[in-house]
Design goal:
- This protein is of the alpha/beta class.
- It is 43% helix and 15% strand.
- The protein has helices at residues 15-26, 44-52, 69-74, 76-96, 134-154, 180-194, 214-227, 244-255, 279-285, 293-306; strands at residues 6-10, 30-32, 58-61, 101-105, 158-163, 165-167, 198-202, 208-209, 211-213, 234-236, 242-243, 260-264.
- The chain is globular and about 60 Å long.
- The protein starts with 5 loop residues before the first strand and ends with a helix.
Amino acid sequence: MSNTPYILVTGGHGFVGTSVCNLLKEDGFSFFAPTHEEFDLTRQHEVERLFASNSFTHVIHLAGKVGGILANKTSPAEFFYQNSLPGIFLIHEAYKNGIKKFVGLAAGCGYPKYLEPPFSEEDFWSGYPDENSYAYSLAKKNLITQARAYKDQYGFNSTILLPANLYGPHDNFSLTTSHVVPALIRKFVEAHDKNLPEVEVWGSGRATREFLYVEDCAKAIIQACLSIKEVGPYNLGTGYETSIKDLVKIISKHVGYEGIIVWDKTKPDGQLKRFYDMSYFEKSFGWIPSTSIEEGIAKTADWYKNV
């Protein structure tokens, strides 16, 4: 196997994958980002065919079904199925084919629902996750279990990251299936453009989240692929929390919306507080993502308005 990395990037045409592939291209790395039409990663024989037809040295696994609270509550079986099987098949085939390194993304929503923040990796297994996204969360926990098992039995080298709430250019901006940041950006941009008198937002606004700009995430993924030796999982965030109410203020101010904000408190807030202890990540990676929520929202909203 060549010493020059040749990297398989699953989900390379998606949100995070686009940023990862852009950085790999800028740094001169060779990679292959197949589409779902070329290889269905929920089918074992398709994953076997993918590895048989290429000479990969590293794997970055980003493919999967993602979405916000509404999407998770509507289609839990799909979220479990489409996030479990690709990880199972990819790690196994990566091991069988002598891949030097596998990197995958689990999910911060897998932390126990009633855990007190900041969340430390040693507490990841101490309780059941929030019920609004349980199927997705547990499917992603399987990835960590498999990575550890293959390390313990076969010495297979993998690293699993737990990204905070991601946002940035190339995200999904659907009002029904997206996460909170893109959904709110779209709502407020449209409200501004149509001069709407009010915007309705789910929940009370009290819930807090840790928001991670996608380019910071991509940088960490590539570093994990090329130089990190531990399985983890590693928290991947900023270590700072932002309330949904403050997030709404930042977005509405940036897009210039001055109407009324109506909070629909009959809708779920989800887990009330979620942010990370980043000390384990900083010790291994040597840095902590630092794009501020204000800077990241400005870049994301401006990108959305111009696509």
